[in-house]
Fold these 2 entries.
Entry 1:
Amino acid sequence: MGHALVTGANRGLGLEFAHQLLARGERVIATCRHPGRALALTRLAGEHPGHLVILPLVLPDTRSIAELAREITTLDLRIGLLVNNAGMLVGGERFGTIEAKALQDSFAANAAGPLLLTQALAARLERAKVVNLSSRLGSIGGSESLHSPSYAISKAALNMATRQLAHALAGEDGIVVAISPGWVSTDMGGANAPMSAHDSVAAMLRTIDALTRADNGRFLSETGAPIPW
Ligand code: NDP
């Protein structure tokens, strides 16, 4: 079985993905911006000797992505599951003061990053499932108010990147989906969120395990229910 690669794995949902994948015996490549500061991940590596590789990745930095791809090739690792989890949200946006930088940074991290990383790792993907962590805020059909526009627009772009990647990888038996994790209590989701990272990731892993070729290019909730584009 190939490795599972999780981006943004030093905290939040990414760290929980690493926890749960390791707990069920999988081999994990966990990426984060600053491995030297990723204490929880380092502890996890000690608890699962030989099962966790921690590598640096800053999205969508071209050199950083290329270095990660090179390292994975040098280590001759194959990837069976790629979780494009890393993402950012600019809080407190109001119409009238939305900033170009917020839009650009959100698009770069949330949409361009996952697309470019998946492209760079394509040769290492082995009949892989690629999971892009999207959001209901990225659903154009479900949009009912002005809410975090930079983030919402970037996640809508990620949804299109999901469809594009689904076409690109279909020939290699890849399955590419966008999954919304629900509203989850993390640094991003905040303390009022109703769902724990544990429960969200457990539900997403059940959904990911059940994915078939028929799901390629779909936008799903954490429990696998379809979400309108
Ligand atoms: P957190 O803010 O808790 O963690 C975000 C992670 O992404 C961190 O590891 C962060 O690294 C990393 N990251 C952010 N920007 C970059 C970048 N440019 N390059 C590399 N790494 C980066 O978020 P969550 O765990 O809550 O969210 C995980 C995913 O789930 C995101 O894609 C988010 O949009 C999505 N999501 C979350 C929801 C929620 O309610 N929590 C709801 C809907 C979607 P660092 O520590 O270095 O900053």
Entry 2:
Amino acid sequence: MSEHVSRRTAMRLLGAAAVAAGGAGCTVTPGAGARTGAQPATAARLAAEAPARPARPARPGSAARVQALLERLTLDEKVGLLHGDRDPASLGQAGYVPGVPRLGIPPLRLADGPAGVRVAAPATALPAPVLLASAFDPALAREYGRVIGREGRALGQDVLLSPMVNLIRTPYAGRNFETFAEDPKLTADLVGEVIRGIQDEGLIATVKHYALNNQEQGRTSVDVVAGEQVMHETELRGFEAAVGAGCGSVMGAYNKVNGVHACESKPLLDELLRGRWGFDGWVMSDWDATHSTAAALTAGLDMEMPGGRHFGAALKQAVTAGTVPVGHVDRAVSRLLATLDRFGLLDGAPPARPVRDPAAGARTARRVAVAGAVLLRNERGTLPLTGPATRSLAVIGPTGQHPFVSGGGSAHVVPDRAESPLDALRRRAGKGAQVRHALGEDLYGRPLPGNALTPAADLDDRAVAAGRTWTHQGRFTLPADDEWTLYVHYTGRRPSVKLDGEELFPVQQGVAEFFAGGLLGTAPDGRTVRRRTLRLAKGTHTLAVSAEGGPAGQRFRLRHSTRATREADLAEAVRTAGAAHSCVLFAYEDATEGRDRTSLALPGAQQRLIEAVTAANPRTTVVLNTSSSTTMPWLDRTGAVLQMYYPGQEGAAATAAVLFGDEDPGGRLTQTFPAAEHLHPVAGDPLRYPGVAGRQEYTEGIHVGHRWYDAQRVAPLFAFGHGLSYTSFGYEKLAVRQRGEGLAVEFTVRNTGTRRGTEVAQVYLGPSPDLRLDQPVRALAGYARLTLDPGRSRRVSVAVDARTLSSWDPAAHAWVLGTGRREVWAGRSSRDLPLRGAAVVRRAAATG
Ligand code: BGC
């Protein structure tokens, strides 16, 4: 049963009262609501809760330096530090704050992550965070952060707008690739290390989007409703861990939380973030997510981005009129300055910027892509490709040729380079091997048939000089009725294309235009693409094209596909697959910020393509370059399925290395893949995703992700934690005992196969019999990634800390230790747990 949430209880949400009683950090209070009354009367601190060393602690004398600056800053200058402005020398980053050079406060440049530094210049395009997370490897997360930290500094940036820690709550959410997992603990473990990595290199990290920003639909207005226990045990875990790691900045979300915009929520910003967690950095709004001046500043928002609608002239006026105390402004400014001081940015001469190391970035990008590659299925020895499979291979799919590097929206990075998967596979197969490609589905169209245009015109690569206009007026004649897709690829201004007087590619305003990027919106040569599908009748139509060169000139091409070309592409794919020994089919799903998915099926005609290709060649591996889970009605027809998400600029080489068995697929799913559209935690009931009347309730309660499948006994397509190796592993000899207020779990993992391979051994924990709170049937309690040679075994130790054994008690506003007999499972996924044991958990105070 999920916790019932009333608006009133939800608003007093986050336990500031308990802070006053127990101090910052985690306390165990006598278990209000516990079934047994035998509990000590005094609160005991959770020993294992001490936060790991924060990256970059405050420097001696910081408070005095900040105070001295505050005394010299004018009101205009203070207000100028609290909102974004236009950058006169923009490097293509998302945000800019001019600073106060006369006092040595430098301008700040703020660039998006989270899979690399997003500026106008090329950077290392790392694999999407969801792929990093799939490695279950906090040390690798640190390395990932380090690459971004160094590059951000090298590319002229001071603040990174990353990482994103919102949980994968629904598979439909458009930004699932930008975040880590559906599991709160895994998310919390990884985010801390990514932040330490970024900040180790001197770049200020910004954890986002605080909080409950788990969908794009209605994102700027949706009211997300969740109770105190639910929030602490799910979505908030990642943010708390980010604060524990010393994150310099927090970005408030677009949405409302329990009735109040996140950027003006006192419970979230003032009471929880600062009061309870002790956050000492500054809070900025998401882009245009500030809704007020006094309310937002008072609630704890420090900086409006990217402009100054509420925190610019309006703030100055409010201070002058006395409706906002200047002390509130000073408080926000000092939070910013204290953070800049922590990073050595107030020392007069800002720290020297490193030079980029693209080769090191590329090495990490490849390592992460291999480590996170999830082999979902492998039947009949389809993978790795060996023997005849390496000599005769069909590669199918548009993204087999044009690499799908990263997702769209603000996460898109200009990569240093991006090899074609086809080239990588050819290189790996070597001379003499036959590796043939067929498109299967044409994403960008082919030139218009020459005989369709009267008068004749070359519309396949037109250049229009700066300041000039080019026009074409004529007839467009079709031999038969057909369904046409027309494409325009262009640089500069979008040309006008009118068919029978109707504009085919009207310019949309605002975010709709911006978020149309990604794989489908960008041609392989970087031109913007727009497409339009319509039924056209046989006969003569009118076509009018007009293109303006604008200030910098422009180039464009007009392309097409028809039912006939689509059938021809499919037939060629089937022929190519049938003629080869083995086949690798690259499938895509193009996700982007600003838009949720409308279906979990692969888009376009890919299902039909997979069915036809697997019928022609059952030794087919489907490589998925998708953002999140997909449904797979075609699964049984395939030989193998390899989930690569958006694998970054080295994705092609990493994919080839895994397919050929040079590397063991090291990733495990960080989200459950549902068996059907209606079989996941946020489906079915219209109150769930996307919500009704602008309201979205966490109806699954604390049972986010895999916890829901266990609680509801729903069989997934692929379970959380699932992923195959090319070898096999056995589990034996589980031992569980209490250590402090945590558990020490030990077991032996043996490589029972014939190859060296990597396993992610997972530990899950059952509920406490002593708590009367809702608890997961099984919660992820820990994991260990290990690589073993064939026949070798290792004793694995997993420490389960007191926090993991605790639940959030909304009556006490505190974590309570779940004492009593706790069941423990170990194995290779949330649904494949060969070992089972238990231990009794007692309070340290009670056990002495
Ligand atoms: C996104 C943020 C991003 C910001 C700046 C917003 O639309 O939600 O994640 O950091 O834009 O690009």
